[in-house]
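We include the entry.

. . .
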Amino acid sequence: MAILPIKKINIFAFKEDKEDILKLIQTMGIVQINESNTDFEKEDSSNYKVFFERAVDRLNQALQIIKIYIPKTNLQSNLLNPKRIILPKKRDEIIEEEKEITRLASKIIFSHEEIKQKKADCLQVNSEIESIKPWENLDIHLRFKETKYTRSFIGSLPGALNPQKITKKFSKDLSNIEDIEFEIISADKNQICVFVVCMKEDELKVESCLNDMGFTKPSSDSTKLPPKHEKIKLEKTLCFLKLQIATLKSDILNIAKKLDDFMFLIDLYSNKIEEYNAIGKLSHMHNLFILSGYILQKDCTLLKTTLSNKFCVAVEYEEPRDNENTPIVLSNSYLVSPLESVVESFSLPKKYEVDPTPIMSVFYYVLFGLMLSDAAYGFIISVGCIFALFKFKKSGNSIKQSAKMFFICGLSTMIWGIMFGSYFGDAIDIISDKFFKHKFSIQPLWFFPIKQPMKLLGFSLGLGILHIFTGLAIKLYSLIKQKHYKEAIYDVIFWYFLVGGIVVYSLSSEIVCDMLVLDFKLSSDVANFFGTTAVVGALGILFTSGRESKGLKRILKGIYALYNVTGYISDILSYSRLLALGLATSVISGVFNVMAGMVSDTFLGPVWFLLIFLIGHSLNISINALGAYVHTNRLQFIEFFGKFYEGGGQKFSPFKLNSKYTTLKK
């Protein structure tokens, strides 16, 4: 398939129809509105846009808060499932109550902030209760200091001092003081809480003795209540705070019943924002407005007919200029379209480029399967994707396309697994030998890579050469299509001669053929012919790569360009990762199978075998499937796209209704 043709559009209509026309265009979703490059007046819609942006922020914040408090079962049914269906009657009810709904969103935010504050208060009260607990047996309040004739000291000593040491030190240092009372209120490994009373004239001696032992006053800012009563008061405060938190949570959960209302308003207001963005791009003159943008060629007749039937408008179409960077829309078949997202993640093609998706898709599926290459793993991936397609059939297009892509990747993995005789590695051999005492193996349709790794290396490098040369072929096609015939010869044909000549010439070497386990060796005549071809290609690159310069500078640029042959060799060698990842899957599978087989003869052997088997292969399929995905993308982006692809196209973004959470049933 290809890049869909696109046209520029200008719509002229009366201002009084502006909102209705914009709503119709937004509903159809086929026009990308651009900023008008005219000197006419523009309407300032920023105030309206800011109002709706703030409303959306508030509603989104309330929605995130609901996710925190709503039960998980309800969350799954409300937030993780596909878009909610909103009937027209329900829509009208929501619009009538939108002020109340936004007020409830603000209430949720306020309640959440109150809950956070009260939880902080609970922590503070709990801390105070913990600090009072050691003093529960004290009958007076902690701030008590003195009477008319006595002085009291209430505090704690380090837990390293046991009660005997404290009593002994008091007896020794304060032996000359008769009227003194010393009481240990509580003791643990951290502190010893004490209460000391003495006459006022002995205050300094007692205080000095206590300070020497590390005396500290209570940290609690207690009221004039005994600790026991103070603790009861704090516990009541704590219960009251928890009750308030529960009430606030209950309020949030009650409001959460209007979850669909919040979702619909978010979608409604988001589309309002897009509408005011569009209004800001329009030009105005007298009683008219002008809308400029892009539209797919196939939709031109539909739009013009629809608008003309309802409004008094003038619709004008024109071809974009050759140097104009028009938006891009890719159109591909069922098997190819899932990989459009891969191309888009790199960069969309420009309008004069070839859409690389169809050709890339063939290599993508082949390379992914070759890297994972286990029939059982491929079966699991494909079945999982089928389940996802049915489970999330009402989900967004991106999820469906990803599931389709990995479904086909799973099929490719199954095919390569059958070719290489890999079913959970060598699990069939291990299971038949350990549990049925008769070893049984399924033979590969081609060969066992783990037994003939160099054969797989040769195939991987050959596939890499085909991949790279296909990229050059696309570049050749693009240059010929643009009638750049000289560039096609200089920048493609000469590189075919050089790189292709070197590759074919190397196949006449006995060392190379033996290393790659090839069953043939090219004759010296063929080698000489392709050696000459490589020399012609090298000379062509040398004298044409710097063609925009003259003299010595041209030759130097040619030498520099010729050095890029090492880049081609490096790119070809990078396809050895196909061997590395394919062997990694087989070897790791084999390791887990051996580990499972080692415990098969022990007590509850089948149970241990199954446990190790499931855990090991789950890890293996997760890690190597991720590796296959990453390295397949890398080979496309660097080795393949690097040979022909410029990219830099902008995505076609039509003005349309975008709903994240809800779908309005017509």
Q: What stands out?
A: The radius of gyration is 39 Å. The chain is about 60% helix and 10% strand. The longest helix spans residues 605-640. The mean pLDDT is 89.
